[in-house]
Design goal:
Layout: E1 9-11, E2 17-19, E3 21-22, H1 33-42, H2 55-74, E4 82-86, H3 89-98, E5 105-109, H4 114-117, E6 124-128, H5 134-146, E7 154-159, H6 171-180, E8 184-188, H7 200-203, E9 207-211, E10 222-226, H8 229-233, E11 244-249, E12 255-259, H9 273-289, H10 291-310, E13 315-317, E14 330-335, H11 340-351, E15 353-354, E16 356-358, H12 363-369, E17 394-398, H13 405-421, E18 427-430, E19 433-436
Parallel strand pairs: 3-15, 5-6, 5-7, 7-8, 8-9
Antiparallel strand pairs: 1-2, 4-10, 9-10, 11-12, 13-14, 14-17, 16-17, 18-19
Helix pairs in contact: 1-9, 2-9, 5-6, 10-13, 11-13
Pfam families: Aminotran_5
InterPro entries: Aminotrans_V_dom, PyrdxlP-dep_Trfase, PyrdxlP-dep_Trfase_major, PyrdxlP-dep_Trfase_small
Cofactor: pyridoxal 5'-phosphate
């Protein structure tokens, strides 16, 4: 599937240029060419939604609401589910956190991305230790829910695919455990939705959250979809126009507000119409391409990377569930004798390969996988360690529907060459990052 930037060339510190190999899909996937073309075709007709009687406003409103229906179909939403457009997965989960009933108990594994680990500050939170098998995940949740206060509301938050290891989580089994104990479950599908079908109905989850920028759609939009009752009962996530149905002055000088009960309740202000349309376009493109075909090709790329890394004894791939666990195109690893920031910098500067290094906004998980203290403080990025110094961080390579075979082959060859021969250039630490010395 063609993506933007596939022909971009970048300079190499050793001289010359090379086509950029974008292997950081887990952070932000490049936009599909089709998505960009759809947005460009709509752009001249852009107008404010739900507000105007003019043709462009009405056209934009129809496009916005049709996008909602398209995404709802893509997610297998049930008839009474509600779909709210947000800014991102982080925004979606913070919205849900703000809508939790009073005295709600939240259960979340330490393996979560910070977007799903941290929003629950107003709830009673139980953090669960990292499981080492899918069955252990279900058993751990079973014990935790069995010991909870049975009289209050409860929510389980779980990822669909790890943003660190790429491993698939047993979502359906965890949903069964949650519901057996009267708890609800929200799925962080940020890393799952770009690679596999996600259906609220089939997975039997109560909510799903994901981001457009990981689903080959730019413009900073996200989705929270699922059960409407908690969302309708909660105060609006943002107060303002669009969320309010009627506002009147009282005799005492105050203001009375009647809020919408639809998704508009949590979509105050002028929504990101282009972002919503881009997500809908990406959903259509992925559906029409067929996930069976996309998954089969991605599995080939995964095998190429994993087999290539396995041939380098100095490389250790990080995993919770083991080598045979099903996974998406996200692989993290460390290289013996290398600072991870130094290795990633050399891949970029000397080979034109973009990967990520650090803790991937999943600090407890990465530190657990690396054998460090999961409680240790750390920044979202590389620690301040000079080339060659030991650091408690890792390197992540990630790819998807738009990744050419050549990019993966170049990455594997670059890893082998760097480990065998070392970097060709000198590097230094600048503002906590390893950069080529000039």
């Amino acid at each position: 599937m063609p993506v933007l930037g596939r022909d971009v060339t970048v300079p190499l510190v050793t001289g010359g240029e090379v086509t950029y190999a974008a292997l950081d899909y887990a952070a932000s996937a490049p936009a599909l060419q089709r998505v960009w073309d759809d947005v460009a075709a709509y752009a001249p007709y852009y107008g404010s939604v739900h507000r105007g009687a003019g043709y462009l406003s009405q056209l934009s409103t129809d496009l916005f609401e049709n996008a909602r229906r398209t995404v709802a179909e893509f997610l297998g939403c049930r008839e009474d589910d509600q779909l709210v457009f947000t800014r991102s997965t982080t925004d979606s989960l913070n919205l849900l956190a703000a809508a939790l009933p009073a005295d709600c108990q939240v259960f979340v594994f330490e393996t979560e991305h910070h977007a799903s680990l941290l929003p629950w500050k107003n709830a009673r939170v139980t953090y669960l230790d990292a499981p080492r098998t899918p069955q252990q995940a279900a058993d751990t949740l079973e014990r935790a829910l069995a010991a909870r206060d049975p009289y209050g509301p409860a929510l389980v938050c779980v990822t669909g695919a790890s943003n660190v290891t790429g491993e698939l989580w047993p979502v359906r089994e965890l949903a069964e455990v949650a519901h057996a104990h009267g708890a609800r479950i929200v799925l962080d599908a940020a890393q799952l939705a770009p690679h596999h079908p996600v259906s609220l109905r089939d997975l039997d989850v109560d909510w799903v959250a994901f981001s457009g920028h990981k689903l080959y759609a730019p413009f900073g939009s996200g989705v929270l979809a699922g059960r409407a009752d908690w969302l309708r009962a909660a105060e609006p996530y943002l107060a303002g126009g669009g969320a309010s149905r009627r506002v009147t002055r009282r005799e005492d000088g105050g203001v009375d507000v009647e809020w919408h009960e639809t998704a508009a309740r949590h979509e105050a202000g002028s929504p990101n119409v282009i972002g919503a349309y881009a997500i809908a376009s990406a959903c259509k493109a992925l559906t029409e391409a067929g996930f069976d075909t996309l998954v089969a090709r991605e599995q080939q790329l995964i095998r190429t990377v994993r087999e290539g890394l396995a041939d380098v004894p100095e490389v250790r791939v990080l995993s919770l569930f083991g080598d045979d666990a099903p996974r998406v195109g996200v692989i993290s690893f460390v290289v013996e004798g290398w600072n991870s920031s130094h290795f990633a910098a050399a891949l970029s500067a000397e080979y034109g390969i973009g990967v990520r290094d650090g803790l991937f906004c999943a600090h407890p998980l990465v530190r657990t996988l690396l054998g460090g203290d999961p409680q240790t403080q750390g920044e979202c990025g590389s620690p301040e360690a000079a080339p060659g110094e030991k650091s408690l961080n890792a390197i992540r390579v990630s790819f998807g529907a738009g990744t050419p075979d050549e990019h993966v082959a170049r990455f594997v060859g670059a890893v082998r060459e760097l480990v065998a021969e070392g970097a060709k250039w000198s590097y230094r630490t600048e503002d906590g990052r390893c950069v080529p010395a000039v």
